[in-house]
């Protein structure tokens, strides 16, 4: 089980007694775990753009200054929130089909992005600083599949861009307010808008992405033979 002191980034030396871990630090009746849990609730219910230190203090029912005992500013809070939101993502079982393993991992990440609106925007900026374990999980699958080092890098960037770049519009249903006078090609496609939803776009996109990576792997193989 992952040590929560690592996930929550507790200051060293404040949570142990005789070398054994104990409950998180408290400030009055407030603990660091409660702060992060409250922040996740705000993001889940209202989106990341509604999370502020003042909004967090209201959620906790404490003074506006109380959360600053644990986090110095909103940036640090966002780091903790992102880490906690992604903490239970697990590596798919090794040895299976690489495309199925990659899809399982991507689906886990997308589930967290859907659960916590706005999280993708944070991850676009902080992945290399704070979430390297996710990058490693993706790259290990790509290396196991046989991608070259260069293509592992390119494949990861494609996955990263699709997953986190689309998160800002993932829950929005596409609409065309005025469908009269549309060019023929747009009109033919637009007639299906009412029958497709956000998850349809996600499934089509991720299946296309993974299938495309398979094509790239096949193209690479003759050069390595």
UniProtKB/TrEMBL annotation:
Transmembrane segments: none
Domain HTH tetR-type: 29-89
Keyword line: DNA-binding, Transcription, Transcription regulation
Protein name in UniProt: Regulatory protein, tetR family
The organism's place on the tree of life at top rank: Bacteria
GO molecular function: DNA-binding transcription factor activity; transcription cis-regulatory region binding
Any GO BP annotation: negative regulation of DNA-templated transcription
Positions of the DNA-binding region: 52-71
Chain spans, region Disordered: 1-28
């Amino acid at each position: 089980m992952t040590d929560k002191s690592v996930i929550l980034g507790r200051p060293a030396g404040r949570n142990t007694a005789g070398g054994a871990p104990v409950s998180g630090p408290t400030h009055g009746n407030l603990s660091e775990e409660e702060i992060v849990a409250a922040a996740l609730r705000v993001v889940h219910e209202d989106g990341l753009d509604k999370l502020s230190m003042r909004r967090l203090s209201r959620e906790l029912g404490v003074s506006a200054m109380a959360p600053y005992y644990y986090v110095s500013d909103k940036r640090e809070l966002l780091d903790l929130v992102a880490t906690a939101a992604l903490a239970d993502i697990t590596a798919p079982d090794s040895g299976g089909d690489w495309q199925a393993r990659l899809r399982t991992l991507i689906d886990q990440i997308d589930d967290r992005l859907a659960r916590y609106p706005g999280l993708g925007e944070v991850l676009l900026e902080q992945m290399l600083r704070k979430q390297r374990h996710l990058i490693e999980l993706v790259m290990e699958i790509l290396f196991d599949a046989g991608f070259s080092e260069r293509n592992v890098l390119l494949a990861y960037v494609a996955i990263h861009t699709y997953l986190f770049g689309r998160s800002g519009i993932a829950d929005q249903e596409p609409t065309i307010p005025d469908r009269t006078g549309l060019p023929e090609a747009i009109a033919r496609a637009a007639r299906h808008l009412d029958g497709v939803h956000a998850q349809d776009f996600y499934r089509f996109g991720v299946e296309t992405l993974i299938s495309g990576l398979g094509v790239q792997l096949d193209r690479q193989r003759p050069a390595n033979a």
